[in-house]
Specification:
Elements: H1 11-24, H2 33-49, H3 53-82, H4 85-102, H5 109-127, H6 131-160, E1 179-181, H7 188-198, H8 205-221, H9 230-246, H10 252-267, H11 270-284, H12 289-306, E2 310-315, H13 322-329, E3 334-342, E4 345-352, E5 378-383, H14 385-388, E6 395-400, H15 410-425, E7 429-437, H16 446-458, E8 469-474, H17 482-494, H18 498-501, H19 504-516, E9 522-524, H20 532-540, E10 544-545, H21 557-579, H22 583-599, H23 603-636, H24 643-658
Parallel strand pairs: 1-3, 2-6, 2-7, 7-8, 8-9
Antiparallel strand pairs: 3-4, 5-6, 7-10
Helix pairs in contact: 1-3, 2-3, 4-6, 5-6, 7-8, 8-9, 8-11, 10-11, 12-15, 15-21, 16-19, 17-19, 21-22, 21-23, 22-23, 23-24
């Protein structure tokens, strides 16, 4: 490669030539160039003194090319410094648009859904041991996540710009009825949640990351041009590095996260800092145990309200419209709005029109992003006179529950198993309103299959309890023949698939759906429909009696994996803390393991907790034995005790006394 420093280079050409040159001379970091140049100059001087003119000339040629590379690097740095926010923004937006086109993603709004679906496919392929497909899908996931990160950078650049960003996104139509903003994930509530999690935590890597999230969430809420406390940030980051090293968290992904976080902190890219900190926290702490405890407590509070009562439980995946259906069935007037899901991008959303009249609906929220908003079971009591007329008395209780087995996360999945199912077991009877959404139907009726298996996994001997289930259909075209659709799924898909045919329980549920939709399928229309007919159907159902003997919940494979990762991490943290004789940290992680064990009756957690206890006992026993022998040798030696021996003995006594706080686990 012949380098010519006199050429007028464009930024990309300059970067390419710099990279080629660094590769040629096997220089991995441009920051190493000055040292290489210095070495080269020293060798030239040595060769000249030794009269080795040929070697000196060769080294001179090498030096010239290295200096040219250094000039390229300097020019690039200078151009980056001089580059305006506007030109940066333009380049980033061009790069984003190109990436979206290559991956056939229609807009930024669809990225989150693409990422989630890609993760689901990876999990499915892993379960089926399809290793090649897993690797291919991981490449796609990385591309989607890179684009999402690029979108974050663009958002941050726009928010920090003193000029109003050029908005080339399509504007909402002038006839749009109402435009509402969706709260971003960074809300006052989410900041408060992080405080809840970090409260009284012993200093460790987990707590420091949570404190980072607290700080930057608050700063993000303050908006553009916020002033950051660099001293606090630098001190906390150094502390985090030491804690990660002390806890021996040397996993590749954690180290990569730490490097990314350092870069984002330097550039003060708050959206990327929040995203990166969340990823780092999920790797340091795969499972948020305090959040599970919070959700279970909420479920127990709800359990007191529905204990001994007849309830109707809504079942369906996230995005099927469970919360919207409850609002509709309560008699609330509904409206269609345009919701801004990101700057310049709008989505249709159905919500309550006017003030909420039924106080119970305050805990029932929905999202325009097909995202689970329900985090714990929320009962809504509906007086029948409000729906059926003044001649009716009594009430029905509808329960909005988190999406079972969906994207709500391991914490919600566990809280379902621990809290929601236990709450249902205390009821007098339970009826089921099973919802299927047209959006999740799929080209082979996968949505119907998922709904059927949700019911099967939840209700023991479901074939005997089909009389307690009513099916309703959301977001379907009003003209669609639901019965014909279900029949087609059975004849063209199920009857031709030997694996599905062997699933007799699924066949029974599907036949029940077909039978119950022959005459009058319930297609829910929240805007102009009448809830009365569906309410009357629900009243006629035979509720499941003795629910404590019927309802069950088995957590998903992904959640089991998450639990396994968490208990392994806690065990490893306990061993590291013992190595450094940090008893308070040992106690912190033992408490976490015990809390998880008390919440979830799984052998994985019990065994891990018992292993941790054994490890602590053995370590402390060995410590006492070694210290006793050492002190005895010193005591009986010819020289007797010296000051160091006495200090060591004193430290040992203090350490053993401190270990007494672990006694509650023994």
């Amino acid at each position: 490669m012949k380098l010519n420093s006199n050429e007028l280079e464009g930024g990309e050409d300059l970067q390419k030539k710099l990279n080629d040159g660094l590769s040629k001379y096997k220089i991995s970091n441009v920051g190493d160039l000055p040292e290489r140049i210095h070495r080269c100059e020293q060798r030239i001087k040595d060769y000249q003194e030794e009269g080795r003119s040929e070697e000196a000339e060769n080294e001179n040629n090498r030096l010239a090319e290295l200096k040219t590379l250094q000039k390229f690097a300097n020019d690039l740095n200078k151009s980056k410094e001089e580059e305006t926010d506007e030109s940066k923004l333009r380049k980033l937006e061009e790069k984003l648009a190109k990436g979206l086109a290559q991956l056939k993603v229609p807009n930024i709004s669809a990225l989150i859904e693409k990422i989630q679906r890609s993760k689901e496919r990876i999990s499915e392929f892993e379960e089926e041991d399809r290793i090649d497909e897993v690797e291919i899908e991981k490449v796609y996931l990385k591309n989607f996540e890179d684009l999402n990160q690029l979108a974050d950078e663009i958002t941050n650049l726009k928010s920090n710009s003193s000029k109003k960003p050029v908005d080339d996104m399509p504007k909402p139509s002038p006839v749009t009825p109402i435009v509402e903003n969706i709260p971003t994930p960074t809300t006052e509530q989410s900041v408060e949640k992080q405080r809840f999690n970090s409260h009284d935590m012993y200093p460790c890597a987990e707590k420091t990351v949570v404190e980072f999230l607290e700080y930057f969430q608050e700063k993000h809420l303050e908006g553009a041009h916020v002033k950051l406390d660099r001293k606090f940030i630098n001190e906390r980051f150094k502390q985090l590095q030491k804690q990660i090293e002390r806890q021996e968290l040397f996993f590749k992904k954690i180290q990569e996260n730490l490097q990314d976080l350092d870069r984002y902190l330097s550039s003060e890219n708050i959206p990327s800092i929040l995203r990166c900190s969340s990823e780092l926290l999920s790797r340091i702490r795969p499972l948020d145990v305090p959040e599970i405890e919070r959700l279970v407590k909420k479920a127990k509070d709800a359990a007191k309200f529905i204990a001994g009562k007849e309830i109707i439980l809504l079942i369906g995946e996230t995005g099927t419209g469970k919360s919207t259906t409850i609002q509709f069935l309560s008699g609330a007037k509904m409206k269609k709005t345009k919701v801004e899901v990101e700057p310049g991008r709008f989505s249709e959303h159905i919500t309550i029109d006017g003030p909420i009249k039924n106080h119970d609906l305050i805990n029932v929220t929905n999202s325009a992003l097909s995202k689970s908003e329900t985090r714990y079971i929320a009962p809504v009591s509906i007086p029948l006179r409000d729906i059926c007329g003044s001649h009716e008395s009594g009430e029905i209780i509808l329960c909005d529950a988190p999406g079972f087995g969906d994207t709500a996360g391991a914490e919600v999945d566990i809280a379902n198993g621990v809290g929601v199912i236990e709450a249902l077991k205390g009821c007098k009877t339970v009826k089921i309103l099973a919802l299927s959404s047209y959006k999740s139907l799929g080209d082979r009726g996968q949505g119907i299959q998922k709904l059927a298996h949700l019911l099967i996994n939840m209700i023991q001997d479901i074939q005997e309890r089909l009389g307690a289930i009513c099916y309703a259909f959301t977001k379907y075209p009003s003209s669609m023949d639901i019965n014909a659709l279900l029949t087609d799924i059975k004849t063209s898909k199920v009857d031709k698939d030997p694996l599905l045919q062997s699933d007799t329980t699924f066949i029974a549920v599907l036949k029940d759906m077909i039978n119950k939709t022959r005459v009058d399928a319930e297609i829910i229309d929240p805007l102009s429909g009448d809830p009365k007919s569906l309410i009357e159907k629900l009243q006629k159902l035979r509720g499941i009696k003795h629910p404590d003997e019927v309802f069950r919940f088995s957590i998903s494979t992904e959640t089991q994996s998450c639990i396994s990762n968490q208990v392994q991490q806690d065990n490893s943290n306990i061993k590291c803390a013992l190595k450094h004789r940090d008893i308070d940290l040992v106690l912190h992680y033992l408490d976490k393991l015990k809390n998880l064990k008390d919440l979830i009756d799984l052998s994985t957690i019990r065994d891990s907790y018992e292993d941790a206890i054994r490890s602590v006992k053995e370590t402390l026993t060995n410590f006492c034995s070694e210290r006793t022998k050492t002190f005895h040798r010193s005591l009986t030696s010819q020289d007797g005790l010296n000051i160091e021996d006495i200090q060591e003995y004193k430290y040992s006594i203090e350490f053993i006394q401190k270990c007494q706080k672990l006694q509650k686990h023994f």
